[in-house]
Design brief:
Blueprint: H1 25-36, H2 40-45, H3 53-63, E1 65-66, H4 73-85, E2 93-97, E3 104-107, E4 113-117, H5 118-123, H6 126-142, H7 144-160, H8 167-197, H9 200-212, H10 221-233, H11 237-247, H12 255-266, H13 269-275, H14 290-307, H15 311-320, H16 326-335, H17 338-344
Parallel strand pairs: 2-4
Antiparallel strand pairs: 1-2, 3-4
Helix pairs in contact: 1-8, 1-14, 4-6, 6-8, 6-9, 7-8, 8-12, 9-12, 10-12, 15-16
């Protein structure tokens, strides 16, 4: 029996839930393809001696505190609870390590290991920590710890052949693709954390604290989410390029973006159906279609581009839709002068412009060729 304070609400359990239920479409398409490669991870598990995994396990065992009923019992109760909710039969080992930087990770090929830093443990309250532990258990259920280790091994291998002509470009392409997948896998794990904690506000608070520290009385979730909207929509093409350059070296999405993505997913019919007990089952994972997963991923990126307020995405939409005067639009979006020019010429109408046809009958304007 645990002395941990339980939430004052009933939380749903998800028997036999497949990680496909919460995985981000871009993460899902990669994982379904990897799972179809029979023996792929087995080969790399046999090469585990080449990886630092054993060294890390010994390091945590010797220089960190292993969570158990005797040590950090409240964290151990949360871990078992998270595994119970997501129906993960084998409870991963979990350690708390001395590090003032708030962080958590799930590593390992043979068996997942979860590591929490003291900075994170001291930063979050009980409900926020539930979401974080659920996040890490989600990594374990998805197999991220296995495939991340495999792909990190491939990256290290590729770095050794960087001296080959054009090798640097090949390595950069691999690393860029890996980091993009890493970022999407974090969004998947955020969703798993919400399924475990089942408290969206707690998930939001946790992300906000990671960004701004333990000063909740000085912060506001709605204002924090507005930052994500401003980040996604603000600036011109120069800012769009800078956003890309800023995110390329990161393994995690920015915290405001993670909060915004989680809030968006929590408002979907997909999430509501999941909470109502309708979700894909783990026993059907072997029948998952790779092509369906890739179609879902492509559809997600298409929808994201359509709703994006980013200037670069807007330009791409214009070009895709057959917009004319691409050079002028590119200039306006790069300098941010498009909106200013429009504001300076409010009196200009279609009839004043020689390039526009005359109004139709009853003053009706013909449809513009521009989107």
């Amino acid at each position: 029996m645990s002395t941990e304070k339980q939430p004052g609400r009933t939380r749903r359990r998800f028997p036999d839930i497949s990680s496909r239920a919460y995985e981000h479409p871009a993460d899902l398409s990669a994982l379904v393809a990897l799972r179809k490669l029979t023996g792929f991870d087995t080969v790399f598990k046999s090469l585990s001696g080449l990886l630092p995994e054993r060294s890390l396990r010994l390091l945590f065992l010797s220089d960190s505190v292993r969570v158990s009923d005797e040590q950090f019992a409240h964290l151990n109760a949360m871990l078992r609870d998270a595994c119970y909710i997501l129906d993960l039969e084998k409870v991963p080992s979990m350690y708390v390590t001395m590090d003032p930087q708030p962080n958590a990770m799930c590593i390992g090929m043979d068996a997942p290991v979860i590591v929490l830093t003291t900075g994170l443990v001291e930063l979050l309250d009980e409900e926020e920590m539930r979401a974080v532990i659920g996040h890490e258990v989600g990594h374990a259920l998805s197999g991220h710890s296995v495939y991340r280790t495999i792909l990190l091994f491939l990256t290290n291998l590729a770095l050794r052949i960087a001296w080959i002509p054009l090798g640097n470009l090949a390595v950069l392409a691999i690393i860029t693709a890996l980091r993009e997948w890493f970022r999407k896998s974090e969004l998947s794990a955020d969703r798993a954390g919400l399924l475990v904690g089942q408290d969206l506000q707690a998930s939001m608070r946790g992300l906000m604290k990671i960004a701004g520290g333990n000063h909740l009385h000085e912060m506001n979730v709605d204002a924090f989410l507005k930052q994500a909207d401003e980040y996604e929509a603000g600036g011109d093409l120069r800012d769009s390029v800078l956003k890309i350059l800023n995110v390329l070296p990161r393994s995690h999405p920015f915290t405001t973006i993670r909060a915004s993505e989680l809030r968006r997913w929590a408002a979907t019919r997909e999430y509501q159906r999941l909470m109502d007990g309708h979700y894909p089952k783990r026993t059907a994972d072997k029948d998952a279609s790779v092509s369906d997963a890739f179609r879902e991923s492509a559809s997600h990126y298409s929808d994201s581009m359509k709703r994006s307020k980013d200037p670069l995405m807007g330009l791409i939409r214009d070009i895709t839709n057959g917009a004319t005067d691409v050079g002028g639009r590119l200039r306006d979006r790069f300098t941010g002068s498009g909106a200013q020019a429009t504001a300076e010429r409010p009196e200009e109408s279609a009839a004043d412009s020689p390039s526009q046809p005359d109004p139709g009958p009853e003053g009706e304007q013909p449809e513009s060729p521009l989107p």
